[in-house]
Amino acid sequence: MDDIKFVFVPSIVNIEGVIVGLGIYSEESLALDKLKRKLSDNWSSGYKEAQLVMWTLNSDDSEAVPLKHMYAQVCPICDERTFWTDVVEMNALCYLPACQAWIEHSDIEEEKVDCGWPPIGFTAQVDSIDDALTSLRNYGAKIRASTLDDSDIFTHRTLLEEYEKSLEKDST
């Protein structure tokens, strides 16, 4: 126990503003995995905010260090409230398992922002996070428009759910 200098505390906030703690961990990766799993497994539960903070043990500090502070938004691709924007790292990810649209700063070009939608391999490199959101919104609109033109009654959400089921079948 003497080796532990920090603890990591993930939490979520529901629509009513109630904070739900998800445990206390000695490793950042374990706390982050717990937070991501909670968001992925409960994507329709109505959470509006999530955090991962680090506390220093045996310290007089009364403030935790924020490692992640995320807010839920409507995803520009799947149109569900599952797109979590992290204001600490300035990136975003849709936690709907069938969607997983994402935005992050480019690893290759510092001034650029990358975004994409993994199910079909769509990626784009743009100048700002706003441009990335616009790019994903335009792509999402094309997807929704194509499902409206289709004679089938499937919506984009149904198509995403079908894709998610196919992933489950492939993994078994």
List the helices and strands and how they pair.
Layout (H helix, E strand, L loop, with lengths): L5 E9 L4 E3 L6 H14 L5 E10 L8 E9 L9 E4 L4 E4 L7 E4 L7 E5 L4 E5 L2 H21 L6 H16 L1
Antiparallel strand pairs: 1-2, 1-3, 3-4, 4-5, 5-6, 6-7, 7-8, 8-9
Can you give me a brief rundown of this structure?
The protein is of the alpha+beta class.
Describe the structure.
The protein is an alpha+beta fold and 172 residues long. The chain has 2 domains: 1-73, no CATH class; 91-172, no CATH class. Helices cover 30% and strands 31% of the residues. The chain is built from 3 helices and 9 strands, in the order E-E-H-E-E-E-E-E-E-E-H-H. It has helices at residues 28-41, 129-149, 156-171, and strands spanning 6-14, 19-21, 47-56, 65-73, 83-86, 91-94, 102-105, 113-117, 122-126. A 9-stranded antiparallel beta sheet has the order 2-1-3-4-5-6-7-8-9, with helices on both faces. The longest helix has 21 residues, at 129-149. The chain is globular. The termini are far apart.
